[in-house]
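(Deposited chain)
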Amino acid sequence: MASYNFDRTSGADRAAAGGQDMLLLAARLLIGAIFVESGFGKLMNLGGFAESLAGQGLPMPMLLAAAGGAVECFGGLAVVLGAWTRLAAAAVIAFTVMATLIAHRYWTYPPEAQGMQRIQFMKNLAIIGGFLALIAAGAGRFSVDGLMNRR
């Protein structure tokens, strides 16, 4: 029987480690952009967002709409810029958990709508996973955080 000496670090691992800062930049841009755009839209139509929250039976819908839109927009912007990345990612995780529990409880929808709401629910879980990875890895060198750490 032949004996093989496998290198413990694969080519994919070496490539990812070598490009880690660029990958973190791409991750921040891709995941943060969703929240900047959506949060900005909510802030520009605060009344409509508050109305949708009131329709879900939430108290103080205008206050919740303002807070939610601000966390979504400015938390997403902080992630894109890599500024206070871990704190911003945690704030946007909290927003995403709340939004998921408010709007995407697929099990409460009629059977014909459950499939789409389940996809939205699972998508939000994946987004939370991406933010958890950013919390673990940090913003990378190409970020405000990286710039501040170099000083």
User: Anything to note?
Assistant: The chain is about 75% helix and 0% strand. The radius of gyration is 19 Å. The mean pLDDT is 93. The helical segments are 11-18, 20-44, 46-55, 61-81, 85-103, 111-137, 144-150.
